[in-house]
Amino acid sequence: QVQLVESGGGLVQPGGSLRLTCEASGIIRSFNVEAWYRQAPGKDREVVARFTPAGSANYDDSVKGRFFISRDSAKNLVYLQMNSLSPEDTAVYYCFARRFGAVYWGQGTQVTVSS
What we know:
Low-confidence stretches: none
Radius of gyration: 13 Å
Number of strands: 11
Order of helices and strands: EEEEEEEEEEE
Strand content: over 45%
Structural class: mainly beta
Shape: globular
């Protein structure tokens, strides 16, 4: 069974930080996890951070310098460290994996930034 499970979301004040975790299981390994996306109410799902084939990372301009994607292969986990959060970061965050052309999504974790 393929599973991607996100966790770590919650309510945080502006300026705060959260670390999201994506746990891969089944046939999906952490190196299959390619990116973190988010979807705000009424908006399309958008990519916020993705690994490049060379192993570095690209970020959407809106999160550059504040969000950081990383991978712990030994634990089969992918993280999204989010700093200096603002209300505009409020969204459901999803991790995305691909394996032999098939795509996989987790159920998402809600991040709400509000005072």
